[in-house]
Specification:
This protein folds into 2 domains: about 70 residues; about 180 residues, Hypothetical protein af1432 (Orthogonal Bundle), CATH 1.10.3210.10. By secondary structure, it is mainly α. Helix 6 packs antiparallel against helix 7. Helix content is about 65%, strand content about 0%. The termini are far apart. The chain is elongated, with a radius of gyration of 28 Å.
């Protein structure tokens, strides 16, 4: 009887070992399938994201065609924002939102009449009132798109000021989304270093002095300081790509 019990125990142990091996093999094969499926899903999501961003770039390009005065503006602002983000040590997860905000910040100008948007002179008070609505229009256009929720906040608040004197909501300080605070510096610098029909562009050094002067008033001090740490040569390389509407003085 004891021998039978020992034999039975051996059979049970062998069966248990065999079952463990079978389950281990099933687990390994299942894990490999899950990893492969996750990799495929990650690739599909990345491709979808690239498609989204290509569409956003097309929208930005369409705005440039309508408002030729600011040709390339969104791309230059994007590059300035990336340089600022690097000096602020922002994580890579923040960059897609900043990029999309830069591309779409003026999407609300779709609702601005051509006689205001393309006026070759300074705007009147009434025309400025129309122009100042574009952040609200832009946020309204994209707020219904779930993956652009954070971008809509940049679009709505990109003309707010650190001191609360901006628009459309008069937000101040940290109440303004960080992306919008970064954008405010990048956008203002590009505007200052770009020609307009009614004025010449500032040079980079003069525009940097203006950023420093407005630190703590128009601009978040930390963001302004980060911008001012960017090498002047990097800023000049981007600013030189702005359209030249006026003849430039030749040195020497």
């Amino acid at each position: 009887m004891r021998q039978i019990q020992l034999s039975l125990a051996g059979v049970i142990a062998a069966a248990a070992a065999l079952l463990w091996l079978v389950l281990r093999d099933v687990y390994v094969r299942s894990a490999r399938r899950i990893v492969a499926q996750a990799t495929a899903l990650e690739g599909a999501l990345a491709e979808t994201e690239r498609t989204y961003d290509t569409t956003l770039q097309a929208l930005s390009n369409a705005l440039d065609v309508r408002d030729s005065e600011t040709e390339g503006h969104s791309q230059r602002v994007l590059r300035y924002m990336e340089l600022i983000a690097d000096r602020l040590s922002l994580g890579s997860d923040d960059l897609p939102t900043l990029r999309r905000g830069a591309l779409l910040h003026d999407i609300g100008k779709i609702g601005v009449p051509d006689n205001v948007l393309r006026k070759p002179a300074a705007l009147s008070d009434a025309e400025w009132a129309v122009m100042r609505r574009h952040p609200e229009h832009g946020a309204g256009i994209i707020s219904s798109i779930p993956f652009l929720a954070d971008v809509a906040r940049i679009v709505r608040h990109h003309h707010e000021r650190w001191d609360g004197e901006g628009y459309p909501d008069g937000l101040a300080g940290d109440a303004i989304p960080l992306g919008a605070r970064i954008f405010a510096v990048a956008d203002s610098f590009d505007a200052m270093t770009s020609d307009r029909p009614y004025r010449r562009a500032m040079d980079v050094a003069e525009a940097c002095r203006e950023i420093a002067r407005c630190r703590g008033g128009q601009f978040d001090p930390l963001v302004a300081d980060a911008f001012l740490r960017i090498p002047v040569g990097d800023l000049e390389a981007i600013a030189d790509e702005a359209p030249h509407l006026h003849s430039r003085a030749v040195a020497g």
